């Protein structure tokens, strides 16, 4: 999925913003969940993007860990960019290794899409609005006002992560997928 998103996402206007066919997504998810072979290259890239966001939303406790939710939310309240980056790196060190590996690939994809935002209309802000709700959610539900404020903070965090991914994860993030 990520490889396809890395290949096609940068040249696809509205990637992650537009949804794939709900029926197709449901059918493909059922096939994937049953272990059947699925060739996503034959599907719309919007279906792949929708399936990927659904996958992220189904990670127990979220990929960024709902247990660290308060710490993630407070990162953007820190001083300068250097302090934010250091705080983010400390939080990443607290995540399970599998989460960190997946995050690197996710932000490698987002970086590639952002680099061609004039073509695809998906700058870091737009990507964050679409992806942030799939990366972290509060451990307990709350009022709509609190959830709205939370969504803004997490979107701001994901925008910052996207814009600074090379400094946070290392320059090699741009070549994780090799020459495709």
TrEMBL record:
Gene3D superfamilies: Rho GTPase activation protein. InterPro entries: ARHGAP20-like_RhoGAP, Rho_GTPase_activation_prot, RhoGAP_dom. It comes from the Eukaryota. GO terms for molecular function: GTPase activator activity. Coiled coil: none annotated. Keywords: GTPase activation, Phosphoprotein. Pfam families: RhoGAP. PROSITE patterns: RHOGAP. PANTHER family: RHO GTPASE-ACTIVATING PROTEIN 20, T-CELL ACTIVATION RHO GTPASE ACTIVATING PROTEIN-RELATED. This is Rho GTPase-activating protein 20. It comes from Pelecanus crispus (Dalmatian pelican).
């Amino acid at each position: 999925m990520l490889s396809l998103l890395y290949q096609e996402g940068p040249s696809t206007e509205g990637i992650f913003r537009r949804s794939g066919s709900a029926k197709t997504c449901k059918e493909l998810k059922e096939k994937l969940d049953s272990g059947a072979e699925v060739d996503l290259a034959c599907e719309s890239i919007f279906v792949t993007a929708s399936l990927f966001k659904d996958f992220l939303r189904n990670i127990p406790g979220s990929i960024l860990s709902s247990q660290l939710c308060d710490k993630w939310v407070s990162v953007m309240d820190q001083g300068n960019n250097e302090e934010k980056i250091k705080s983010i790196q400390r939080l990443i060190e607290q995540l399970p290794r599998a989460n960190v590996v997946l995050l690197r690939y996710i932000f490698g994809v987002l970086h590639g899409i952002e680099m061609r935002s004039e073509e695809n209309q998906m700058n870091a802000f737009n990507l964050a609005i679409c992806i942030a709700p799939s990366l972290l959610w509060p451990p307990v539900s709350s009022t709509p006002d609190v959830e709205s404020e939370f969504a803004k903070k997490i979107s701001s965090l994901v925008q910052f992560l996207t814009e600074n991914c090379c400094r946070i994860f290392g320059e090699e993030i741009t070549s994780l997928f090799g020459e495709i």
